[in-house]
Amino acid sequence: MTMASKHPRSPLAPERFPELPAIAGVGIAVGASGMRYKGRDDLLLMTFPEGTTVGGATTTSSIPGVPVVWTRRILPGGRARALLVNAGNANVMTGAPGERFAERCAAAVAEATGCRTDEVCLSSTGVIGQVPDAGPVEKVMADLAKAAAAGPGGPEAWARAATAIATTDTFIKGAAAETEIDGTKVRIAGIAKGSGMIAPNMATMLAFLATDAALGPELIRDLMREANDLSFNSISVDGDMSTSDMSLMFATGSAGNTAIDDLSDHRLAAFRHALHGIAIDLAKQIAADGEGATKLLTVKVAGAPSDRDARLIALKIAESPLVKTAVAGGDANWGRIAMAVGKSGYDIPPEVLTIRIGDQVVAAGGGVLPDYDEAAASAHYAGRDVRVTVQVGDGPGAAEVWSCDLTRGYIDINADYRS
Amino acid sequence: MTMASKHPRSPLAPERFPELPAIAGVGIAVGASGMRYKGRDDLLLMTFPEGTTVGGATTTSSIPGVPVVWTRRILPGGRARALLVNAGNANVMTGAPGERFAERCAAAVAEATGCRTDEVCLSSTGVIGQVPDAGPVEKVMADLAKAAAAGPGGPEAWARAATAIATTDTFIKGAAAETEIDGTKVRIAGIAKGSGMIAPNMATMLAFLATDAALGPELIRDLMREANDLSFNSISVDGDMSTSDMSLMFATGSAGNTAIDDLSDHRLAAFRHALHGIAIDLAKQIAADGEGATKLLTVKVAGAPSDRDARLIALKIAESPLVKTAVAGGDANWGRIAMAVGKSGYDIPPEVLTIRIGDQVVAAGGGVLPDYDEAAASAHYAGRDVRVTVQVGDGPGAAEVWSCDLTRGYIDINADYRS
């Protein structure tokens, strides 16, 4: 598979793309529109059987892309039959011509797959402000629909799908699990793309999950809200937020499990756990493919007033350019961690702050510990997997977030993204 | 003068340090404590005559440095006789030993200059979390006090002062003006240091101004609040905020001008204008010395609900790593400007947004203009002085902020600051 990225594969990439299982009823097809990239797939069509529900989240940007606005109209009803994604052009700030592109794409999908346009989710990623041409999309749609209808997409199809939605990604991202709901076996599979502009609130990232579980429209919405907070809203590459981001899960119901209404129903515990695992796995892969990333930075915060507060503080640390460059340089500069906590806006007296680098407590009680072993901390920072843990009080709130180091590679990629 | 920085001089540096006038009664002396740097001055003592008032602001970090906490106790009274600054060690997260350092420094200054310790402002910049040693400071204090007492410091002394407080700065920063209050000639001179962690809310930057104007303690506080918002709170290098930042103005009253109580008194107009000019000049010098900076980025926002809102939106643009890398690459990617506006949290429909690059209107009415000349926009981005102007509505709020491009140089400096 040809990746769009001209940049070297992230050293944090998993060895290989996992085997994603076919989900009964989920058709997967990819194609090349040529609208921006040459010689690679840039379109993904997924099709779903009647009765499929959808839940998820879209960017909170006040200038969302046209496809975001389109898909937001579908989410409240919670029903979908198809998803069309294109990579290379985000269809943002494109005015009425951009809306026309979205309408034509949805119409082409509806016609080719035999559903209504208001059952077609749309998603786009890429450059802002250029009106995309629907012609090339319409031209290939019959072929895509035919390929998707040929049967549920298995490991190969999922890998091609992950490749088609990639932009500056240096590796393709997927995760899957088998679990159960009230004794019935169900499967979840998902793909994602980063990177760049990846920040909480769904910044430039796309994630699409499918499951054969039967999940009502309200339940799938609640499930994805919870999963998003723990995963895609807990990563940051550069603090920027995209106009296009989206994470969706489609549930076909083919597994025939018991219908459950309530998120807290104990019969959902295994499914929730599996869903969180997949979403966090995908989110960490996105952070690990942050532009120019050479190290994964995991920040845990405990003792905050609430989980939400803990997440905000953790993200201040994980987003700080000075923390991220220190990680890049393998320089265990814990003062920059304290600086980032200080700017979080919370009233955290230095005395209550405990900072751990790796497993070593570095600072506590208002200052550095006398037996602080800087060489050990620097050795930890020199590794691929950097862990910072901060206790900010004795509150019940805790969170874990993921980011990456800030390197010359980030500059090289972003100072020259369009050229 | 030996600069601390081992990095090349910013291409945005002014040709030379300006001639800063002696301010009657203001003694200036520098010295070398050797506490971190070898072979350069790292201490600045300024002394002021009886009756001197002081006003200014300190970092809003919840983990402020010991000297910040010290100086915050002095500001409400608005009276000061001396200022001691040390560079290289920020005295942050240093616990009781750090407090002892501050007390010993203030005591040494008080004893050597003949004032009270609660009239001594303290300021430190540098590494966090290492307890500084007061011994070397005490050792040189008598010499510093003697030098400061020799007479008001003129251009040479100001330049040495600016050099002594520098850390990663690649050029020293100063500005001055002559103006009048109700017909009496008064002078203002000021020095500053950046860079790195420079963000609004007084992030790692120091600025010290002196004037021979007579300004009451309330008036100088109000004057500096206004000047800070227009200058030091309107710049950003990396969005990080320091634990140590401070901007102070000392007014000796030697000029003997009319006492004025009210900021809005028309007889203060010329002074305010001159003060704003100096503060903005220093702030822009700090932005121009952003770590690795090769271009100054000026962002203007108009049409916001208030000036404060306009500043927040402008800073979102000026702080965005994706905007800053686009500036670095000379790539007039206006979509990233729209993205940054979108993440500001304000409800700004794309239709009302107008984006200018240089003097060219690029996008308006919800999309790019048909006659957009990308080559001209890129030529503007390729220059040293990049200007982005955004209209976000028809509100009365406007602001102008300054930042710089994000380059490999930023990474190189910060991935290796302590080594």
Oligomer: homodimer
Average pLDDT of chain A:
92
Q: What is the CATH superfamily label of the largest domain in chain A?
A: L-amino peptidase D-ALA esterase/amidase
Strand content of chain A: 15-25%
Q: What structural class do you assign from the helix and strand content of chain A?
A: alpha+beta
How large, in whole angstroms, is the Cα Rg of chain A?
Answer: 22 Å
| CATH architecture classification name of the largest domain in chain A | 4-Layer Sandwich
Catalytic activity (chains A, B): L-glutamate + acetyl-CoA = N-acetyl-L-glutamate + CoA + H(+); N(2)-acetyl-L-ornithine + L-glutamate = N-acetyl-L-glutamate + L-ornithine
Active site (chains A, B): 204 (nucleophile)
Function (chains A, B): Catalyzes two activities which are involved in the cyclic version of arginine biosynthesis: the synthesis of N-acetylglutamate from glutamate and acetyl-CoA as the acetyl donor, and of ornithine by transacetylation between N(2)-acetylornithine and glutamate.
Subunit structure (chains A, B): Heterotetramer of two alpha and two beta chains.
Short description:
Chains A, B: Belongs to the ArgJ family. The structure is a homodimer of 419-residue chains. Chain A is α+β, with helices and mostly antiparallel strands and 419 residues long.
